[in-house]
Amino acid sequence: MRKKIVAGNWKMNMTSDEGRRLVKSVIMDIKERFSNGLPEDYRVIFAPPFTFLEECSKLVSNTKGVYVAAQNCHSAEKGAFTGEISAVMIKAAGADYVIIGHSERRTIFAENNAFLAQKVNTAIKNNLHPIFCCGESLKEREENIHFNVVETQLQESLFHLPDHQIKSCVIAYEPVWAIGTGLNASPEQAQEMHAFIRNLLMKKYGKAISSDISILYGGSCNGENARVLFGNSDVDGGLIGGASLKAVEFMRIIMSL
Ligand code: 13P
């Protein structure tokens, strides 16, 4: 059964002190609302900066359904890559997920589909679940090529995976024009793209696998709009930026699943 997921991508925000306060507050709230941690098919994921990864993993370790993700990893296992972090290190720090292909990595750090495919392979090899991001720019949507763009991103970075590996992935649809702009996709736009993605998965991997993979929406998702976005049949939760930095707001989003 596919999971309902809210993941908070902190990006380059939060010191460890700030992060500790936020995580403690959210897990305390979760434990108060659900006595034994989250229900079986629910996941909450924190994606803090690397400096807080290991401590964050320890903080969530005894709360059922709460996990930690890194925001990026390198494609190589190890070596002379100054400033980079490997999938092995991330796993050793206690994380179970890694965000791959975020639009900020694609645009600011020039990561292309082929490089992202290598990262996906390395992540899976090291028992990390990729949270693979895809999404079109405003120009691409205006040119009406958004479906082609997303299809190419998936074909070139993810669809080389065999059945047993694609099953470990989470997909996040994040239209670039909605990220950090306050302009979220409408529920109809989100559902339309998520259904398109699920259909691509079905054509490639069959019905059972396609209906098992969680597809998250990201882009100006907040406590106000989360419920209506998550209310769509193919929207299985959200990848949250700005609104994941405040415990009360993040909790509102979690309670919208
Ligand atoms: P915002 O929620 O701040 O728009 O960011 C979305 C995002 O990029 C999550 O990865």
Largest sheet: 8 strands, parallel, barrel
- Can you tell me the number of structural domains? 1
Spatial ordering of strands, largest sheet = 1-2-3-4-5-6-7-8
Name the beta content range: 15-25%
- Average pLDDT confidence is 97
Oligomer: single chain
CATH superfamily: Aldolase class I
* Elements, N to C (H/E): EHEHEHEHHEHHHEHHEHEH
Can you tell me about this structure?
The protein has one domain (4-254): Aldolase class I (TIM Barrel), CATH 3.20.20. With 257 residues, it is of the alpha/beta class. Helix 1 (16-33) packs parallel to helix 2, helix 1 runs parallel beside helix 12 and helix 5 crosses helix 7. The mean pLDDT is 97. The protein is built from 12 helices and 8 strands. The longest helix has 19 residues, at 187-205. An 8-stranded parallel beta barrel has the order 1-2-3-4-5-6-7-8, surrounded by 5 helices. The structure holds 1,3-dihydroxyacetonephosphate (13P). 1,3-dihydroxyacetonephosphate (13P) binds at residues 9, 102, 174, 179-180, 218-221, 239-243. 1,3-dihydroxyacetonephosphate (13P) is lined by residues 9, 102, 174, 179-180, 218-221, 239-243.
Give me some keywords for this one.
8-stranded parallel barrel, binds 1,3-dihydroxyacetonephosphate, 257 residues, 12 helices, TIM Barrel, single chain
Question: What is the topology?
Answer:
Blueprint: E1 4-9, H1 16-33, E2 42-47, H2 53-60, E3 66-70, H3 87-92, E4 97-100, H4 103-108, H5 113-125, E5 129-134, H6 138-142, H7 146-157, H8 163-166, E6 170-173, H9 187-205, H10 207-210, E7 215-218, H11 226-230, E8 237-240, H12 247-254
Parallel strand pairs: 1-2, 1-8, 2-3, 3-4, 4-5, 5-6, 6-7, 7-8
Helix pairs in contact: 1-2, 1-12, 5-7
The protein binds 1,3-dihydroxyacetonephosphate (13P).
The site of 1,3-dihydroxyacetonephosphate (13P) has 14 residues, from strand 8.
